[in-house]
């Protein structure tokens, strides 16, 4: 699957990023198909320049942007449809106590098995 993602470059503590199209299995700093733009968050204001026509082409072909690329495209270029690629960021772990209570006795829909009634002893049998 093709991904639009940021590929990190630059020196230590002076990072800048390329916006590239790459196969999702390839390493972040590895092989890519095409450079679509660049992003430098260290500058004031941050620089984000892309080729919008090429991005639209790759999206039409079936490439999917990463969360960070989708949010950058949405905020800086107001591109349509980027919300569907952005995962919700308010995911929280469930409370351990609440999860334990729910599994311990919260589910009453299951019927508990009752022991089978003992067959009545016939008159001729010894106890």
Note down, in words, how this protein is organized:
The chain is an alpha+beta fold and 127 residues long. The chain has a domain of 83 residues: Ribosomal protein S16 (S16 Ribosomal Protein, Chain: A, 2-Layer Sandwich). The protein has a five-stranded mixed β-sheet with strand order 4-3-2-1-5. A hairpin with a 6-residue loop joins strand 3 and strand 4. The longest helix has 11 residues. The chain is elongated. It starts with a strand and ends in a 22-residue tail after the last helix.
In a few lines, what is going on in this structure?
The protein has a domain at 2-84: S16 Ribosomal Protein, Chain: A (2-Layer Sandwich), CATH 3.30.1320.
Following the backbone from N to C, one meets helices and strands in this order, namely EEEEHEHH
By CATH, the superfamily of the domain at 2-84 comes out as Ribosomal protein S16
Instruction: Describe the global form.
Output: elongated
Q: What structural class do helix, strand and pairing data support?
A: alpha+beta
What is the CATH third-level topology name of the domain at 2-84? S16 Ribosomal Protein, Chain: A
Give the strand tally: 5
